[in-house]
Amino acid sequence: MILIMKTITKKQSWNSYQKEIANDNLYYARSCIRQNFFPASEHMFLHILQKELGKNVFDDPNHTTCTGIGYHADVVLFDTIQTVIARHFALMTEAGLEHMAISCVTSFGLYTEVLHTWEHYPEQLEKIRDFLYKATKKEFNLPKSIAHTSDVIYSLRDEIAQKAQHTLINKHTGKPLRAVEHIGCHYAKMFPSKGVGGAEFPQVLAGMIESWGGEVVDYPERRHCCGFGFRNYLVQANRGYSMSNSKKKFESMEVYKPDFILTNCPGCSMFMDKWQYTIAEIDGKTYDSYGKGIPVLTYEELTGLVLGYNPWDLGLQMHQVQSESLLDKMGISYDPHLKYTDKHGNQLPKPVSPLHLTQT
Amino acid sequence: MIDVIIIGGGIAGLETACTLHTQGIESLILEKEKEIGGKLTQWDSLFPSNRNAKELVETYKDEIQKHTITVYVNTKVIAIKKQNDGTFEIFTSREIVFKAKTIVIASGYSIFNAERKEEYGYAIYPNVITSADLEHMFATKKELKAPSGRTLERVAFIHCVGSRDEKVGNHYCSRLCCVTGVKQAIKIRQMLPETHVFNFYMDLRMYGLGFEEMYREAQEKHGVQFIRGRVSEIAQTNEGRLQLKAEDTLAARPVRMQVDMVVLLVGMEAPECNSILGKSCNIQYNAAQFIVPQDIHYSSGITSAEGVFVSGTSIAPLSVFDTINHARSTALAVSNFLMPIQNE
Ligand SMILES: Cc1cc2nc3c(=O)[nH]c(=O)nc-3n(C[C@H](O)[C@H](O)[C@H](O)COP(=O)(O)OP(=O)(O)OC[C@H]3O[C@@H](n4cnc5c(N)ncnc54)[C@H](O)[C@@H]3O)c2cc1C
Ligand code: SF4
Asked: Which chain A positions have a beta carbon within 8 Å of B235's beta carbon?
């Protein structure tokens, strides 16, 4: 089914940015890095869609990286990345599917860029068809729609709200939890019309937060880049730039006392989480009042918490900033003894506790 | 059959009608709003002389009355149809169809809708306003305050909003927003001497009579600070102030500044009716939908369709000075066109 999404909000500016989001019969395009940093997120997306909501999503073992990191680091050529993406379209075509759900903001930006290029330069599309055929003997149809996987969750947010075990209401105060959302530059800054709500007042994560009872913090550096910036991070000497961007955001959001940060993009999730540790180590500074940092969640992790999944099954213990403060506010019970155990209950090694970022 | 029907009762239409009258030619003005005067009815004082805009409109109203020129207000022109004999039928929001030998399009300009520059937060943050809003606030003597009720410590003007901007599809310069920014910055400094005023610009286009002098005066006498750099975004702070980001391209430094009010110097766009009227009688208009005169130097009031003339800002953004001069030259072109017909 294709839904034409309607946002309900006082701010009208994003009403012109609606997109078609297919949320069934999807070809799933995984991220190449998410499983390392947030190991349960992609699994949860599939689980929630397939098991909770009964949707058909194909997780194809033949799908590969889109090579986006290499492309943005100038080591992969545009022709190459177009051919890789064309191969993914060929796999989707072979699976008899027409809609793609892409699990990475970088990939989503690139798929959009490639489709846009082909629309404006059809000769480029023909060239890539030829490259792909010569290399793999594969042919492909263009997808009828592509969506970021957060778009898919956004489109199902009300259905999820109906099944919610926990809401984003602070159990101690009865007030909505305050969330900072960060959509990631490549989600809508390049092609505002391809993101729900556009680039300036994006609605994709905000819509989930609001539907599940929370409140979105509109802080001054909301649109600022997290600092990932590919070469900012990949070239070790540039990492200071990367961190200073995140720091600018943390300083700007701090006064609003957010309960958590919700992210869209693998890079942003990682940096907004890990740089809190680094800054704490360098400056002794954390951006909450208790020395614990501000928990950073992916939208799948948040969806999982709302639906009542065990936080340790969601992999929240793998984050640098620990999420117990948020779990307590949401009224989610958890067993601290099971935090670092495998699925059979065997104890796993506990990470060393940093000096300044309290780990419980 | 009327000799001339003028579409639009802004100063361009009014001046065209008055000049035609002095030439012995009677005209009829069709104005869509309930009163004549166009945008000037909303403005406070006019650059470069500081003359009261309402006073100029009143002068025109007196002239129109004195010359008994007929004006139909609340009459929106929706189409023009050329007849086989070269005359025109004019269809409006009224039921009657007007007939005329010639037509003057004086439908003016539209103000750029600042909501399209989402990054500036117009219609989202209450203390982001446009130059047109500010002009209206001056004219209605509204007190200038931050939404929190506190006095304005800092005000920033942002130039080129909706002009010279690939993103919104307007490549042209609106020509008047720079000097409007200077005029309004001076006015704020005069009204609120404690308020610091910053103008963020790309270039300052002080092309007109007296404009450069105003710009100097703004700096030397009124302490307005001009920063060369385009603002990239505006966001609200916890205290309800506005944080803006820009690059000071002269100092080669990024700027982050908190202010209490932002004024967007909105550009001038062609009104929607230009293309509608243009299509209905085959007039050439450019990519920005302003009407293209037959010859920009020699006959700037004549359009590509015989018997259809154009006056004022329907051809491009113009100041009052330029609009009035253009309207007079258009009236002369109309009278030259009608003379042989009348002599027949
Ligand atoms: C914020 C701002 C401040 C300014 N300040 C100054 C200043 O200080 N000094 C200065 O020299 N210039 C100033 N200007 C420029 C000034 O407003 C113009 O020069 C002037 O308004 C041009 O007059 P016009 O008659 O061509 O257009 P308009 O004033 O736009 O008049 C056009 C008229 O046509 C009518 N109309 C439109 N379509 C139709 C239709 N289909 N049927 C019937 N009627 C129709 C409209 O209702 C309107 O009354 C300023 C502009 C802006 C944006
Ligand atoms: S007049 Fe000035 S503010 Fe207006 S578009 Fe031209 S340069 Fe920009």
From this structure: 218-223
Q: Could you report the per-residue pLDDT of B60-102, keeping only the tens digit for each?
A: 999 999 999 999 999 999 999 999 999 999 999 999 999 999 9
pLDDT, one tens digit per residue, over A15-54 is: 667 788 999 999 999 999 888 888 899 999 999 999 999 9
From B43, B45, B49, give the residue whose CB has the most ligand 1 atoms within 8 Å, as the site to mutate: B43
Nearest to B124 among A11, A219, A255 (CB): A11
- The tally of domains found in chain B comes to 2
Nearest chain A CA: its distance from B123 CA (Å): 8
CB-based contact B238 A11, cutoff 8 Å = no
Question: Torsion-angle region of residue B141: left (phi > 0), alpha (psi -120 to 50) or beta?
Answer: left
Question: What pTM does this model have?
Answer: 0.87
The whole-angstrom distance between B120's CA and the closest CA on chain A is 9
The whole domain housing B62 covers 2-109+270-338
Residue A21 and residue B268: Cα distance in Å, rounded? Answer: 37
Q: What is the pLDDT of residues A308-320, one digit of tens each?
A: 999 999 999 999 9
ipTM above 0.90, yes or no: no
Q: Which ligand is nearest to the CA of B319?
A: 1
Q: Which two tokens stand for residue B343?
A: 């002599």
Residues B121 and B12 placed together within one structural domain of the fold = no
B149 and B83 fall within a common domain: no
Which residues are CB-neighbours of B162 under 8 A, at least 6 positions away? B112, B113, B114, B116, B117, B168, B170, B174, B266, B267, B269
Q: Which CATH architecture has domain A164-332?
A: 3-Layer(aba) Sandwich (3.40)
